[in-house]
Amino acid sequence: MRCMGENRQRRWGRGIRAGVCWLIVGVAAAQAPVVQVPAAQAPVVPADHYGPPVCGVEKAPARRMTAEAAKAEQLLGARNSQALLADEPLENFGIERFRLADYADCVGDGGCYWADLDAQYKRAEKALAMRVAAERAGSGEKLAVVMDIDETALSGYCEMQREDFGYVGPMFNSWVVSPEAAIAIPGALRLFKEAKAAGAAVFFITGRPGLGAPMDQTAATEKNLEAAGFVGWRGLSLRKDEENRMATIAYKSEERRRIVAQGYRIVMSVGDQWSDLLGDPQAGVSVKLPNPFYFLP
Q: Do the Cβ atoms of 45 and 183 come closer than 8 Å?
């Protein structure tokens, strides 16, 4: 969930409870070559191997140091008998950024973000199938799956890479409403389709700004979700009006409450931030996806 300007809107539903569990990300890693995509279309996250989307020549740094090379240089300096060394209790931020880029690019020995993300979605798919089967054998209530959008359904990797994994609000907010932002996360699309096939309604709750906000992103969000393959969702909620002043946990909890009020039992909730999942009502299974790029309370 990327809150670039943290605002958003809604439409929604009833009934949760039963056993509540948390599905936390595990670890997997892989490395593979990148795949070229036409410049005119939105970048695509590879589905046949683990790796980042190709974001376009203009957005890729010409060359960067790896975390391994930076640490080697640090070690060389530390071993210099003529150097007067300083106490440095914190890891160098620049090196941490190199490590983040390595993880996102699936290089070095620090793992692969895309492999870990997909592994967690595969766990979620299995958990969803079990949960739906159990619920269908019980009360027969309407079932719902709730998903966040940023770094959950759609990837903002290309823009984050362009901003060197910082956050420049005007740049990000301009990009996120462009067609280039329709970058589906493969595991999210699989889960979305499986939920629909199982008869569950899918609701998106995002912290993006909606009606009443200076930059209403509702129309662009709808268009990019559908362009990325998320077609046939039941509800889309963006922050609107007074919701812009609410804490994220309070806002998202209230949106889930509206889903429950419509007679739905939320069998699964998926997000990359704890603020996507905490608060009441909770889903039967809460799936926490990996996000090494940012933290939003």
A: yes
